[in-house]
Design goal:
mainly alpha, 2 helices, elongated, sodium, decarboxylation-driven active transmembrane transporter activity, EC 7.2.4.2, OadG
């Protein structure tokens, strides 16, 4: 009985060690691939087209939006 328990623990530790070693190798491989890709294929900064500048529109529309925002904030004010 004692021999079987020792054998079971030994197999368990070997299995856990192999899993740990595989995960460590996987982390190293992913890190190396990431470094390789970053070095040879750097991420280019995003280039956004210049957005047209909005003209200050109708004053009535601006007033209506301001009133709606004020009313919303008044209704949803935290206690």
């Amino acid at each position: 009985m004692n021999e079987m328990l020792t054998s079971g623990i030994e197999v368990m530790l070997i299995g856990m060690g192999m899993v740990y070693a595989f995960l460590a190798m996987l982390i190293v491989a992913i890190s190396l691939m990431s470094a390789f890709i970053q070095r040879y294929f750097p991420e280019l900064p995003a280039q956004y087209p210049d957005a047209p500048v909005a003209q200050s529109g109708d004053k009535a529309v601006v007033a209506a939006i301001a009133a709606a925002v004020h009313q919303y904030r008044k209704k949803h004010r935290k206690a």
